[in-house]
Amino acid sequence: MKKLLLTALLSTLAAPVLAEPACTMPDAPKPVWESLKAFEDEGGKVIAFKINDGACYEIYGSLNDTNMEVFYDPNTGEELDRINQ
Fold it and tell me: Taken in order 70, 16, 19, 10, is the CA torsion positive or negative?
């Protein structure tokens, strides 16, 4: 019983850390290369790219020797969030 309660508590506390932004994929999204270029223009190095489960553009990269995930809105091309790893 204690293990179940501990697991539930840890899951609840970890959920906000794992939360990613959610987007709505438009009929005519901004080109992916614009988001990649924005990150590279800042001095970042793109390692990988994907469209996450929330339909946002997600870049895995490094900037100033820090690995990070950067999320962009496919509607506007604006950066939504940045998670250092």
Answer: positive
**pTM reported for the whole predicted model:** 0.76
**pLDDT 10s digits, 25-67:** 899 999 999 999 999 999 999 999 999 999 999 999 999 999 9
Residue 2 lies in a domain: no
> Which helix (H) or strand (E) is 1 found in, with range?
none
Give the span between the Cα atoms of 67 and 60, in whole angstroms. Answer: 7
CATH of the domain at 59: 3.10.450
C-alpha to C-alpha distance for 18 and 60, rounded to whole angstroms:
15
How is the beta sheet containing 45-51 ordered, strand by strand? 45-51, 57-63, 66-72, 79-84
Handedness of CA 44, 47, 49, 52 (dihedral sign): negative
